[in-house]
TrEMBL record, chain B:
The chain crosses the membrane at residues 32-51, 58-80. Coiled coil: none annotated. Residues 7-89 form the NAD(P) transhydrogenase alpha subunit C-terminal domain. Its EC number is 7.1.1.1. It catalyses: NAD(+) + NADPH + H(+)(in) = NADH + NADP(+) + H(+)(out). Keywords: Cell inner membrane, Cell membrane, Membrane, NAD, NADP, Translocase, Transmembrane, Transmembrane helix. It comes from Halorutilus salinus. It is found in: Cell inner membrane. This is proton-translocating NAD(P)(+) transhydrogenase. It is a multi-pass membrane protein. The keyword Cell wall biogenesis/degradation does not apply. One of its GO terms (cellular component) is plasma membrane.
Length: 479, 94
């Protein structure tokens, strides 16, 4: 017995070690200097958990197991190393979907193992708590899988970035959810009816998975591109919860702890994103913007009030400035202008100008998107300021350069209560001496409403592609 | 292990996660999301158990599929997070 005691405790012990490493890894993520180490610690935890599991279980089919590990590692490495920085959000989405999908598949495989032992799905063949957990991770995992793929498709531009709306869409979603739950109820109760559902391959579970897969697409397709940061964060939480649910199915503490940690992370990010837009999660998921602005209203606001400027004039302004704040938006990411923007900031700093970046929490397509892009372009993170920090400083700022941002600098959020973005905290750039808005045209942002900022007296429009324009500013400023 | 023990782990992990993650600055939200996403690949542990020791062919095949999916999630997720965080470290040293 003594001989068996030791190995018996090795697996749970390894899982505890892994859980500690995950938590320490996340704690190290609280500072940019230690974050990279934190990620390695977390990866170490994963290595311990997976390594011990591989050694622990009697491997009946090593070719399947190691083949799978090698194929998966190969695909993951190639994707991560070849991806363009601008395409990272969608790749994170794809990875997230695969994790959720894997959880759903594993719960199903375990059900098949259980039902094979008892010769089919009959009353009481699958313990209730296992069935409940499997239903949970089946639905959540499948929604995560297809939902993440749909979100990634939107981010990548292969699916429309518009919110796809149709009559009866909410009813459709409810129907699919109810059908999925119906199959789930069958799986939990295991009644002696509908004999074809009692096969050893647990058909009710796979029907549940198929229905939930459709539901995932329906849920995400009706949400617009600019709301994807919230969706990605929420799906991240889902994939964690699916892993946690699978942990209950397999009676595995490593899955429960790690999955729940991630669930909490995703939920917190989701709430932060929603609060920064002053919208409820329900509104993001089921409401969304749809109305297009009447052309007359646009003309009313902009007619005769738009001042256009040139790069030469902007450079003159910059030469006289003491303090400059740069406000980046998704347009900067699309144009890949972050390096030119970073170079401009560095040049200004060399001339003794105080330069900071004002970053709105929902600028871009994922939480912290602007920060990640600017960090890639070697902007020191001390220069990146959150909205609350930078807003009081605009009155002492000579020049604000808005590049590729629109809704996050729209004063209508504060002044017009009927506006779709009413109450959303925005960067109050018009408090500054001069506001330079770099945009390709006067077109509206994602919310579909005009921006009175463009027509204000101290706003100058600098039309053009973000990268080209910023590069031109750099070149002119150097002279 | 009993359901109650598992539930205890669940609740404690939720509170712990909340405490740790609210301390992470906005700056690092993208790598946090990506790193947390890699942690969900922990489901690989379950996949390994099934792929390696599944007693039926169907379960083994499903285990293989799950191992591939989860491994892509784990390896790709940690790598891409590492790449992002290297950017932050360099940005900070300037």
């Amino acid at each position: 017995m003594v001989v068996e005691l030791l190995p018996d405790s090795v697996l749970p012990l390894a899982y505890t070690v892994a859980a500690i490493l995950f938590i320490q890894g996340l704690r190290d993520m609280t500072h940019p200097r230690t974050a990279a180490r934190g990620n390695l610690i977390s990866a170490g935890g994963m290595l311990v958990a997976v390594g011990v599991t591989v050694v622990w279980f009697e491997v009946l089919t090593p070719l399947v197991l190691f083949g799978g590990l090698i194929v998966g590692a190969g695909i993951g490495t190639v994707l991560a190393l070849t991806v363009e920085r601008t395409e990272m959000p969608q790749l994170v989405g794809v990875f997230n979907g695969l994790g959720g999908g894997a959880s759903a598949v594993i719960a199903g495989a375990e059900l098949i193992e259980i039902s094979t032992e008892s010769g089919g799905v009959a009353v009481g063949s699958i313990p209730t708590e296992v069935a409940v957990a499997a239903v949970f991770s089946g639905i959540v995992g499948s929604v995560t899988f297809t939902g993440s793929m749909a979100a990634a498709g939107k981010l990548h531009g292969v699916l429309t970035t518009d919110a796809v709306r149709y009559t009866g869409e909410q009813v459709m979603k409810i129907v699919f959810l109810v059908v999925a739950l119906g199959f789930g109820a069958y799986l939990i109760v295991q009644p002696d009816v509908l004999g074809f559902l009692q096969a050893v391959w647990v058909p009710s579970y796979w029907l549940l998975v198929a229905t939930a897969c459709v539901l995932g697409v329906l849920l995400v397709i009706s949400i617009g591109g600019a709301d994807m940061p919230v969706v990605i964060a929420l799906l991240n939480a889902y994939s964690g919860l699916a892993a946690s649910g699978t942990g209950f199915v397999l009676d595995n503490t490593a899955l429960i702890i790690a999955g729940t940690l991630v669930g909490a992370a995703g939920m917190i990010l989701t709430v932060i994103m929603c609060e920064s837009m002053n919208r409820s999660l329900t509104n993001v998921l089921f409401g969304g913007f749809g109305e297009t602005t009447e052309q007359e209203e646009l003309d009313d606001i902009y007619e005769g009030n738009i001042t256009e400027t040139s790069p030469e004039q902007v450079v003159m302004l910059l030469e006289a400035a003491q303090r400059v704040v740069i406000v980046p938006g998704y347009g900067m990411a699309v144009a890949q202008a972050q390096h030119a923007v970073s170079e401009l900031a560095e040049l200004l700093e060399q001339n003794g100008i105080d330069v900071e970046f004002g970053i709105h929490p929902v600028a871009g397509r994922m939480p912290g998107h602007m920060n990640a892009l600017l960090a890639e372009a070697d902007v020191p993170y001390e220069r990146m300021r959150e909205m609350e920090e930078v807003n009081p400083t605009f009155s002492q700022t000579d020049v604000v350069i808005v590049t590729g941002a629109n809704d996050v600098v729209n004063p209508k959020a504060n002044t017009d209560t009927s506006s779709p973005i009413a109450g959303m905290p925005v960067l109050e750039v018009s408090d500054a001496g001069t506001v330079i808005v770099n945009k390709r045209s006067l077109s509206t942002g994602f919310s579909g409403i005009p921006n009175p900022l463009f027509a204000e007296g101290n706003t100058n429009m600098l039309f053009g592609d973000a990268k080209d324009t910023m590069q031109e500013l750099v070149n002119l400023y150097k002279e | 292990m009993s359901l109650i023990t598992n539930l205890t782990f669940f609740v404690l992990a939720a509170f712990l996660g909340y405490e740790v993650i609210t301390k992470i600055p906005t700056n690092l939200h993208t790598p946090l999301m990506s790193g947390a996403n890699a942690i969900t690949g922990i489901t690989l542990v379950g996949a390994v158990a099934i792929a390696g020791s599944g007693s039926t062919t169907l379960a083994t095949v499903l285990g293989f599929v799950a191992v591939v999916m989860a491994t892509v999630n784990v390896v790709g997720g940690y790598l891409i997070t590492h790449i992002m965080l290297e950017d932050f470290r360099q940005g900070g040293s300037n």
